Structure formats: structure tokens, C-alpha cells
């Protein structure tokens, strides 16, 4: 794709995961994950449900604890030390499948809360930043409404703006369009594409293969807690190597 | 599909169908009456039956009210007045007029001090307003914070300097906290926390050492006569040896934990300010307020707790206990959810124990039993003991209601707060509690109303609240010996007014906090 080549990837390492393992009780959900993400890289993670793709990206900002292996985010080693965890979380933005906006706060308050309390930004400055990002996701006029008054697509765009207000260096997306009506998927994807074009480091768990083709510079296929295959999107979609990937792709692209 | 035709399946709507009003019978009062009162034969019969009962009741009660005697000095006089006027039935409201002061203020509160109670009540409304209505300016909360000290002085009397000194020491403790947590430069923090760690560790070790000696003393006083005593003797000795062995390691452990948290400053500043506060209250409180009072005496006639009574006592207990038990309940609910086993265990045991015991038992404990456990020299105010018991009781229930609210929050809210980098305190205060408390409002109000009515239970431990006044001094007097309906009806009315107001406020608050619809 023409657009993809314009986006630059630096040599700097943003995330480095080595030999990471995770268990839920006795169930081995992530097995020997090795993954290095360069700054500016846009990675799409796909795979059947229960393959551990959400768990993988939730380990990166310590929403889930990993039991073995090493995760380094922006040079900070993720350990059980709360200070490191808070530092990483304030550098890594995350969007959820169900948006998880704070229903008791207005859109503007949703966006200014973390900058004010975590970054100690003055209220006025935080509000200006919030309005800037709300304009960027094209809903500045909703700033004084509550999340319950917005459509799903609008809510997800607010969630993206809320993360961006913390000026993260890495964005994680956990199936951001799976809970949306078909009509609203495009508006969220457009926002994400815009973000990618600005050079944000992104890890997206998604089934939007069009998005993957257009934006990603690497697609990772996971199954049963392991990385089965990773490749550039063209190669991944046109010429999948593993049998499991071929089966998966034929099922989601088959009709 | 009625618009489609067999010959032309394609269809495009060109004009919008305008909205039209519903049929007349389907709207307004007519619809309401039809749907709610006369929707069928059975409901029509019920409606007529209910109407009959209401009318009969009104016919019976109305003359009783209407003929009521308001001026008389005894029940006998009431009856005489009614008989002379030739009226068969009538209430004797004269008891309310005659004993008004006793019903409201109790029979021992000095009458020249009634204005103090009324003033405290009016100021309560002013102080409560900014806490209840968020549209009022936030600065008024300063008065709300000051109000308890003012009200204490107005109601109990004594020197104004006592509550003011307490307030001053609390502020000083908070300033110490601020100072340590922010002002001390980072490179000194290690030394400061070291010193505080050593002091606290040594203090704890010393306290444990004394406790161990106490256990030996108890063991020896139990003696070894009989099997039970022998067992108790052994148990106490084991506990004593255990404490002896562990007092120094525990001291070192706690001291080191405090020292070790120097980077954060949080634990150090909390412990240091608590230490300061404790010492200040023990050694500075009485000298300061007495000195201030001897320079500029501002005093009201002191009233003992025993002399409080009437509806005022119910209001006093209700207000204090509700405002204390909500924060305590929140802490217990959060503690019960804590991943730390010690905190969780303490909260679970406390809540389950309190919920398993009737309030009246706790009140008896407050009244009688505590005196056995406390050192003979300690003079623990009776009202304070009752306040503690009622507060603990309702806090346990409120904790369970709030726990329900916490459980009802989607996990995503915690995750979203975490992913933005908010720490536990911020996430709890800004995200979790506002939503959990909103869900819990009906439950909390339910308990607050119940608590307020339960304050009448103190009449059983011979305190003269409204019910105590009626049961005791009023009905035992020769003049009003068999007056029931009037006095209890009046008491019910007072409680109803307060409880109904609370309930209306909570419904208003729920509407205010509802952000889900357009």
C-alpha cells in the first residue's frame, strides 16, 4: 500500500517482550511469547477467540499479571513494583471493546481527569488539550454531554481522545470495533487510521482485516496462547505459511 | 409491506407521516382512573371497598381531632371539658401543650438554655445544606466542618475554648502531615523516616512488653486450682511468652517498614502525624484550653449528658450517628474488598459480628458492660458510648449496602481507571465511589431512616429520649396517666416528618445523579 510506506518506523525499541508466560490458575494462556515492537510500528494481532490476544496486550500495561518472562515498555521493566506500573500506564494508552467511559462524568471531564490527577496539569490547560483531541476525533460539540447520551461510535472516539489526552507514546486497542453497529465501525477506524498516519506506536487486537491491510506494518496471528505466524500484511494475507493461519483466514475472509 | 404492490415491489417514501395525538381515552386523568381504579370487575369492587373504609375511618377520626381539647392541666380536666360541651369523643391535646418542653428538650435540660438547642438546630440546617446540595458554593463546607465543634459547645455548654482547642489540634496534626509529606527535602526524608521508625518501633516494643507482663499477672491471678484454671493459666502463659519473644522483633519490623517507605513519604507522614496528634491530645489539650479560658473566659452553663432528653436527643443521636457511620461504612466496604488478608479479615469479622448481634444488646453493653472492661478511673460519657455503639451497628449494615454497589460496577471501570495511570486512592475516590455510592443511595437511606428510628431504643437503657419521656415522666405523672394516642401520635408525626424528608431528599438526589438519559 502506498500509505504504509510513508509511515516511518524508527530503530528505537518501544516494547520488548521476552519469553513471557501466563497462567490462569493451571490454564496456560500465553506460552513463550517473544515480541519486539519498534517505535512507530503498527501491529495488528488477530486470531480465534480464546487465543490469548487480548490477554497479551493487557499484560503490556499490567492489567493482567504475567508469571514468567520479561516485559520492557519504553525502557521500564514491568515488575510488581507499583511505581513502575503507574509509570508505564501513564505512557501507554488503552481503548477497550466496551469503551469503559466514566458514566458519571461529562465527556470533557472524562478527558481531563487523568491529566489533572496523574500529570498534575492545571485544569484550564487540561481542558484545552481535551478540546484539541475531541476536535481531532470530530466530536467537540459533545463535550458537555454524558457518555450515556452518545452513540457507540461516538463513545469509542471519546475513549480514544481520553487516552490521547495523556499524550501516550504507545496505544493499545482491545477489539475497539467489536461492540459497534456496522454503521459506526468506519468512524472509529478512520480515527485510528489518522492516528497511525501520525506515527503513533499501535498494537491493535481486531478482526478488521481491511484496516490491517491498510495500516499495519506487521500482522500477528495467535492461536492457543502462542504466536503462530507474523508477517507483513501483503504476505500474511496473500501467502499465509501455516495451515492454522490459512484456515483462520479462509473462515473470516471466505464470504 | 402494505405499501408494496404486486406489480411494483420497489418503493420510496417521499413524505414523512406526521405525528398525531393519541385517542382522548388514552391520555390524562381519564386514562389514569380507568387503568388504575376501574380496570376490571375485581378492581372496581376493591376500589369501592377501599373508598368505604377510608370514609368510615375519616368519620371516626375527624370528630376526635376536631373536638380536641388544647387547654387543660390534666386528663381528668379534659374529660370534664368534653362532657360539659356534650361531645362524646375528643382528643386531649392539652398534654402536648403542657409537656411541650419535656417532649422536645427533655425534663432536665435548663429551660434558660433552650435557645442554645434551637440555635444549634437552625445552624445544623445551614451546615447540612452545602453537603446535601452540590449547587451551593463549596466554600460553605468550611462552616460544615466547623459546625460540630460549635454545636458541641452550644448543646453541652462549658468553655468555648475546649472545642476550639480540639479543632486547633486537629488542624495542627493535618499541617504536620502536609509538612512531612511535601515540605521536607528528599534527601532529609530518609533521616526523618528513620527517626520516626525508631520511635514507633521502640514504642510498639515497649507496649507489647507491658502487655506481656500484664498477661503474666493475669495468669498468676487465675492460679492453678481446678482443670479450667490450669488450662487458662497455660494459655495465658503461652500468650505471654509469645509476646515476650516477639515484642522486639515486631518493633524492629514495624520500625523498619516505616523507615523503608521514606521514598513515598505517605506512610511516614501518616504515622508521624498520628503520633503528633496523639501526644498533642494527651499532653497539650487540657493545659491549652484551660489557659485560654482563664485569660478570656467564654462559657455557657454546662449541661451533663444525663440531662439531655426529648426529641432533641433523638435528633442528636440520629445526626451524629448517620454522619459518622457513612464514612466508616465506606471504609469497611473497601476494606472487605481489599486484597490484603489482614485488612479484609478484620473487616469481615467486624461486619459479621456486628450484624449477628441485636442493637439492643450492644446498647446494654454500652450502658453496663463497658464499665467493667474500662479502667475504673476512666469516665466515659454515656451518650458517647451510645453513639459509638449505634455508629458501629449501622456502619456494618451500610458497609454491606456499599459492597453491593461496588460489586455492581462493571470491571471495565476499574480497568479504565488503571489504564489511565490513576492510583488506588484516586481511582477509588474519583471513579469507583461516586458510582458505587449512587447505586447504594436507596440502601443507605433505608439504613439511615432505620437508624434514626432505632435511636428510640435508648429509652430501654433508661435514657429519656422522646419515647423515654412519654413512657416515663409523662405517663407516670398523676395528671396524664392514661394518655396514649395523643402523645404517641405526636411522636410518630415528628419521626414521620424527618424520615419522609430524608426519603424525599434521596429520591431527588437520585434524579440529580442520573446521567443515563437525555
Automatic annotation (TrEMBL), chain A:
MF GO annotations: ABC-type amino acid transporter activity; ATP binding; ATP hydrolysis activity
Taxonomic superkingdom: Bacteria
Record keywords, A-Z: ATP-binding, Nucleotide-binding, Transport
Keyword Nucleotide-binding tagged: yes
Pfam families for the chain: ABC_tran (PF00005)
Residue intervals of the ABC transporter domain: 15-249
KW Nucleotide-binding (keyword) present: yes
Stored InterPro entries: AAA+_ATPase (IPR003593), ABC_ATPase_HisP-typ (IPR030679), ABC_transporter-like_ATP-bd (IPR003439), ABC_transporter-like_CS (IPR017871), MetN_ABC_transporter-like (IPR050086), P-loop_NTPase (IPR027417)
Similarity comment text for this entry: Belongs to the ABC transporter superfamily.
Protein name, UniProt field: L-glutamine ABC transporter ATP-binding protein /L-glutamate ABC transporter ATP-binding protein /L-aspartate ABC transporter ATP-binding protein /L-asparagine ABC transporter ATP-binding protein
From TrEMBL, chain B:
Residue ranges constituting the ABC transmembrane type-1 domain according to the UniProt record: 311-506
A Pfam cross-reference name: BPD_transp_1
GO BP field: amino acid transport
Localization of this protein: Cell inner membrane; Cell membrane
Record-annotated membrane-spanning stretches: 41-66, 113-133, 192-212, 232-259, 266-291, 311-334, 346-370, 382-402, 439-463, 483-502
Sorted UniProt keywords: Cell membrane, Membrane, Transmembrane, Transmembrane helix, Transport
Highest taxon listed in the record's lineage: Bacteria
Cellular component GO terms held in the UniProt record: ATP-binding cassette (ABC) transporter complex
Gene Ontology MF terms: transmembrane transporter activity
Membrane topology annotation: Multi-pass membrane protein
Signal peptide positions on this chain: none
InterPro entries, sorted: AA_ABC_transptr_permease_3TM, ArtM/GltK/GlnP/TcyL/YhdX-like, MetI-like, MetI-like_sf
Family: Belongs to the binding-protein-dependent transport system permease family. HisMQ subfamily.
Name under which the protein is recorded: General L-amino acid transport system permease protein
Protein source organism: Litoreibacter halocynthiae
